[in-house]
Fold:
Amino acid sequence: MLTKNDIAKRIAQEVQDGWYVNLGIGIPTLVANYIPDGMEVEFQSENGILGMGPFPVEGTEDADLINAGKQTITAMPGAVYFDSATSFAMIRGRHVQLTVLGAMEVSATGDIANWKIPGHMVKGMGGAMDLVASAENIIVAMMHTNKRGDSKLLPACSLPLTGVGCVRRVVTNLAVLDIRDGAFHLVERAPGVSVEEIQQATAGSLVVPDQVPEMAL
Amino acid sequence: MLTKNDIAKRIAQEVQDGWYVNLGIGIPTLVANYIPDGMEVEFQSENGILGMGPFPVEGTEDADLINAGKQTITAMPGAVYFDSATSFAMIRGRHVQLTVLGAMEVSATGDIANWKIPGHMVKGMGGAMDLVASAENIIVAMMHTNKRGDSKLLPACSLPLTGVGCVRRVVTNLAVLDIRDGAFHLVERAPGVSVEEIQQATAGSLVVPDQVPEMAL
Amino acid sequence: MAITKTVRDAQQACEGVQDGMTLMLGGFGLCGIPEHSIAELQRLGVKDLVCISNNAGVDDFGLGRLLQGRQIRKMISSYVGENDEFERQMLSGELEVDLIPQGSLAERCRAGGAGIPAFFTPAGYGTEVAEGKEVREFDGKPHILETALTADFAFVKAWKGDAAGNLVYKATARNFNPMMAMAGRITVAEVEHLVPVGELDPNEIHTPGIFVQRIFEGANFEKRIEQRTVRPAQS
Amino acid sequence: MAITKTVRDAQQACEGVQDGMTLMLGGFGLCGIPEHSIAELQRLGVKDLVCISNNAGVDDFGLGRLLQGRQIRKMISSYVGENDEFERQMLSGELEVDLIPQGSLAERCRAGGAGIPAFFTPAGYGTEVAEGKEVREFDGKPHILETALTADFAFVKAWKGDAAGNLVYKATARNFNPMMAMAGRITVAEVEHLVPVGELDPNEIHTPGIFVQRIFEGANFEKRIEQRTVRPAQS
Structure:
């Protein structure tokens, strides 16, 4: 079973040279830690920076330089700042090659719910609806089940949607799964996790090929 | 009867402190020459400058600094450059207080035609359609009649339109006229020009008040 | 000759703000917010405000200060966490909240300033955000029609500015400020450094002065950091 | 780590341009045009092009060079004077011309780059530009629906740029370049000065590198002036 850092590590393997990548809050943020040195990848944060670097060295924080999670950050050489309209022009206009974000639920048709639980305080969708409606390549990073042990990979989302038919791949603590033709297709198992465990934890239609390799991390 | 420079001089009297002004090609361009020193007025050129100054001193021309007429210009202190989308955001968003432009025909309902003569080479509307569709305050600067002596102030335009119901005031070599309620309202006569001459040169409905003062230039 | 927009201070800048008005306020979280104008709005005690702002501040800073005095009737935002008083007022129904996708919020403000009354975007299609909105397909993909936002007053914060209202922002403190500056009937800019006209390079200005009606230099910006994240200094 | 976009020269930058493609070309008049890319397109001899450009150059410079070789099938522009060969081809029906208001042209390119498939504008309502287009009233004022423009290749010209594709324009040579950079499937930038990554202040970049796929430094820009207007030196 993968840790959150392992999930990030596995997703980092999806990133290709020359890609602009938007990482959501939580596990997705960790992906940046596992990009190989020398790989030409730039991170976009929707509040207005391309070329986001690591957290600042203590004492050099700048209140004017934050990421979408409102954390203090740094800028890499070649970075650029821009306004929010331009930022979402990049996202909506499909200039960002990969979006990684968390989810509460994902459906077998690629729907995603990650912003609202009826009856609970609703904080808002932030940029998530723009991101999922536009990105060509969306990977969801999440635990396979919720705190009650219920599957988060469903035939249909029960929570209010963030986007429709947009998720292409899900990486969980148990598996890598692709979404197509109305089903989850098992691609890889987490080390030590059996196909049966994955089947049990997946409520939506699951297609299991003959060979399901274990992830190489 | 006014010269082209006189027309510009008369229009300059319309300009108020604190206004951003867009001047079209031809007579309108001359308006800038008659703004009193010390008046806070900035000229916008739709190709991307606010705070346009006079032509450059010989030898200091810069190919990168032109106006919408493609003439070399200078920038005043406080000037700013921007892209064409932002430029027309200013125009469409009604941030420019006054637009002065030329016309081939103006109708008594405020329609304007100034871009196309069927059968002749059509060069295009440039920014004129955006300007007339958006500006709150549009003054047309033109000769009262065309080269054949026909009135350019008509019941309805005969040429393809640039904009509909948008012109508020016309300043010609003969008169200042306001457009409202489907008629030209005579406001001022050019020095030495009689009301009868203006009536004769105006094909559209003309309302003449009891008193028609002569322009003070 | 450049048009002078300078006012003395936040008090003069906020003249004319009245109960029931719609305000835009720049900033993302607490980054790049017009903190002096917000303090003055609190002092003025204007009520029943509709505030368009990406976030709602924290309990004692940013828009949280106006929430304390129940000055806000409605918030139009994309994300409103980090504020207990906000949560209390929202859950009790005292505060109306309109949540819209962040990109649509930014684009709707720009549209308002640019004279574009409506545009199509894919964001929110198939979600509750699309309810009651026109849906149309372009290239086989459904989009929803979103309308422009404008405000009686827009309050923005910049790093540098001049008397002509030209503004330069710093780093990610730019965020929503440029579009909101465009969309205010009266736009008030507070800046860290008010420089003489002509000092800003005309190539490097982010907000042309035409969008700004009033400008003042604020003293002692607090510029609070919401999430201080650091790494240790390397030895 | 920054993504490298540098190519050797115009020849490498234009690889993949084919007959029948839609191209965008920045510039206003002859100001800020991608003159090296145009020269290369002429050398390549690609034909049947659809060119989106505010103007069409003069007889022997700018897009006029592609008109000479009858490489252009259709021009989408706002103003096309100053070019005899253009006039000849247009009147003879060899060249198709789509004239659109300048502000709509700029906004349609921006929309294409920003994933906005369509928007409403008042420009052109009641004129032949509105023919066949949807009309809708907002606040009692009629607007027409305009759609986004995109291109297979966009060619832009900047003053300074770096290997990451970040661009800075000079003065009014900015014009259509930023929006066209956004709207090209492949955007080629030619710059007067290619500077090391990290040298451009990230606050002062006009076109973020994400919009640019190829960049090269041009040698010996001609930068022809169309209307040289001057006043005498004062004594």
User: Anything to note?
Assistant: The CA atoms of residues 11 and 207 of chain A lie 21 Å apart. The longest strand of chain A covers residues 74-81.
